[in-house]
Amino acid sequence: MTMDEKIEFLEEVMELEEGDLDLNASLEQIEEWDSLTKLALMAEVKKKCGKTLSVDELKAFKTVKDICDYLE
Amino acid sequence: MMTFFDNIAIRGVVTAVPQYVDECDQTEYAQIMGEKRLRKHIRYTGIERRRVVMDNQKTSDLAIDAVRDLLEKTTWNADSVDILILITQAQDMLLPATAMFVQRAFAFKKDMLVFDINLGCSGYTTGLQTVASLLQDFGSRAILMVGDIRKYNPEWKVTGEWEDYLTDWLLLGSGISATAIEKLDNHRMYGVQYVDGDGCMDIYKEYGHLSRMNGDAVFSFAINTVVDCVRQFMYDNHITDEDVDYYIFHQAQKLILDNMKDILQIPDEKFLVSYKDFGNTSGASIPLTMCVNSGQLTDGGRVLLCGFGVGLSWSVVYTTLEKDVYMNVIESDHIYSYNQGK
């Protein structure tokens, strides 16, 4: 995935409008980054990338960029 | 652990639920969670309402209602039953086992096996295998009761637990199911059973407190470990999608179920659900889903059942339901337990 595709993917998971997500944004500051969205991300990563996102990996994400790096 | 029986038949399934319907979309809940968050919660979980017990109705009350209907419609005499097992985490009392109250309510014989098992959402599929195994040595007829009840307690607001607990409360529904199981030649049941005690604190409830769940860990467990187990179980037993008419999984919530269905590539029309109107009824959710969808199951059918939850534990059963198997959902607020303390 290109960086634009990753951002678009995360905007879909977080149910944000296109262009709303800043790569360097802290996840804590994003209202939509709640417990349900985290679960949706785990599922979408599994379906889209075939990867198993562990609970520890999920907890380690601090910024949008952290997730994008994981999606590499 | 794999199991196989060639002499186990399901003869009837009845699920009893309390009459009171608790809508998730309520002003009180919105005030606590925030309207936006509540709507998102309902949309993701897919659970719009659940049944909640009122007054002093207990697990045994619903179990008695379910067993009464089951005995009547299967025309089983109570004294022909050899095993009576209840799988619940909502026992009427610490002692005795709640199954004893059910035994007392009917003309069951005394030389039978009666006890409770402490297990949650994997209870039905584990229970079917347990009962099938016991029936190889103890008699020929069993009734397996499974489920939990949820009751609102105003004290939660005083202790401050209510706000934290609300997201779980909005998932959980009440229901107790009873299944008539008979030893009968040429009726096959395949199963598999797992437990991982490393996850024992992912879902737990301490004395005097509300239950707690590590949502991330449970979700990951469901879409990875449990899904892999279903896939492996089908492979090991040479079961393909063509051999399954209906998949009935524990009704945890929509987000989990939709993802399990997608990953396993199960067609929508084969994936039966009941969570929207009944929520997550713990061990009763698989038999409740069978009863709610009995119209589709009246012609019988090959079903793949999968329970998963507290333990962490997970189990799968594949069997064929006969054409005339009796299924029913009954609503009751009847209390039989008025004299239990005597």
Task: Outline the fold blueprint.
The complex is a heterodimer of chains A (72) and B (342).
Chain A: H1 3-13, H2 35-49, H3 55-60, H4 64-71
Chain B: E1 2-5, E2 8-17, E3 21-23, H1 27-33, H2 35-45, E4 49-51, H3 59-74, E5 83-87, H4 98-105, E6 113-117, H5 123-135, E7 141-148, H6 155-159, H7 162-169, E8 175-183, E9 189-195, E10 203-204, E11 212-213, H8 215-236, E12 246-249, H9 254-263, H10 275-278, H11 285-292, H12 294-297, E13 301-309, E14 313-321, E15 326-331
Parallel strand pairs in B: 2-15, 5-6, 5-7, 12-13
Antiparallel strand pairs in B: 1-9, 2-8, 3-4, 7-8, 9-14, 10-11, 13-14
Helix pairs in contact in B: 1-2, 3-4, 8-9
Task: Describe it.
The complex is a heterodimer of chains A (72) and B (342). With 72 residues, chain A is an all-alpha fold. Helix content of chain A is 56%, strand content 0%. Chain A has 4 helices and no strands. Chain A is globular, with a radius of gyration of 11 Å. In chain B, helix 1 crosses helix 2 and helix 3 packs across helix 4. Chain B has 12 helices and 15 strands. At the A-B interface, helix 2 and helix 3 of A face helix 2, helix 8 and helix 9 of B.
Distance between the termini of chain A: 7 Å
Subunit organisation of the chains = heterodimer
Structural class of chain A: mainly alpha
Structural class of chain B: alpha/beta
What is the count of β-strands of chain A?
Answer: 0
How much of the sequence lies in strands of chain B comes to 25-35%
Q: Mean pLDDT of chain A, as a whole number?
A: 90
Please tell me how large the radius of gyration of chain B is: 19 Å
Q: Globular, elongated, flat, extended or rod-shaped: what is the shape of chain B?
A: globular
Chain pair with largest interface: A-B, 16 and 17 residues
Low-confidence stretches of chain A are none
